[in-house]
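Hey all, quick one. A colleague (J.T.) asked me to put the pyridoxal-5'-phosphate job into the tracker so the inputs and the structure tokens live in one place instead of scattered across chat threads. No bug as far as I know, just bookkeeping. Sequence used:
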Amino acid sequence: MSKSPSVSLPSDANASGRSFGTEEIAELEKVIRSGTLNCTRGTAVKAFEERFAKWLGMPACRAVPSGTAAVHAAVAAIDPEPGDEIITTPITDMGAITPILYQTAIPVFADVDPETYNVTAATIAKKITRRTKAIIVTHLFGNPCDMDPILALAAEKRLPVIEDCAQAFGCLYKGKHVGTLGTIGCFSLQQGKHMSTGEGGMVVAGDPALMRRMVLFTDKAWGYGDPNPDHYFLAPNYRMTELQGAVAVAQLGKLDRMIARRIEMAERLTAALAGVRGVAAPKLTPGGRDSYWKYPLRVDPAVIQGGADALGAKLKAAGVFCVPRYIQKPAFECQILRDRVTFGKSKFPFEGPHRADEPPIVYDRAETPGTTDALARVVVLPWNERYDPEHVDWIAGVIRTAAAELA
Ligand SMILES: *Cc1c(COP(=O)(O)O)cnc(C)c1O
């Protein structure tokens, strides 16, 4: 392969691809000097919650220690009975699946559209049973699910929709923020997300009763401020610390700029890739605004010899880090779900009297052809707010050369 001079790309694993600076340090210093590092008494997490809710155009939200905790709070608020089913996607982070099991429900997997990598109303509809309790949709890589048909289906079946927006800050659908369209929205503030506190998360709901339940769930279900407070139900401590809150406040001040930069650079790459045979830019959802957590290339193995793996190998050899096949296999083929490694040897909640009248849950790759196709063809490029035109033009050149060599 012809060697173009290598460019060092910014990484979201360290300062090269993140935007932490004097603002974060100033907010942190205020918290440290206050001596209050806990959000029950402090002001930083509260300020972040207020400002993030405002940013979304919602009345309130709740900060939690991770995206996993956010999904956990959402599922707990829905309060499934043991053995109920929650429909989700096989292309997601395990942190969006384990909370379903912790709340004694069973994850059921709808297929994805092979071109957008997102679940659809049609694939969800096939998985609805009398035990379905909720639907989780994931706006993968920052591109929104096609929400109107999903919300219409959910309304018809009277099912709540949890939106996993961990990868989708600033992603819009018909002009509205994802996370505000369904019943509950979940966000992650993990190191590599659009904005970060190292670890962290948020949940948001328009329904005050659900919001209240999530606030209780994230604080041992203790009824602070009630006339006769008690621990009302089973709940962990999922409070965010003031240290995270301080960084979150500062990051939120930069969020719109960071999102705009990701979009601008991604659109530059898309324009540069026009006409490259065998490699397609992300397919955008009609009515959506992709906020590009990552930039997924779609490889046509009929044109590119060796498909995603071969293209990925060439990009890496040239210095463009990438992840062919993203999570490698659908979530239901991971050990925890394949072998049902849950609570002791019980295989709970997959098995037990609460499932006595139901058919067994079967995870079968043959039922998710879109997922198999999507994972086989995708090469995921990392992306962050520090990419500039020089980086993008270099990446485009490497892709163009690699595609030509493999065509
Ligand atoms: C990152 C991520 C999560 C989990 O978030 P953590 O903060 O790592 O717990 C959940 N869902 C999706 C889609 C994610 O990308």
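Adding what we noticed when we looked at it: Residues 32 and 405 are 56 Å apart (CA to CA). The chain has twelve helices and 14 strands.
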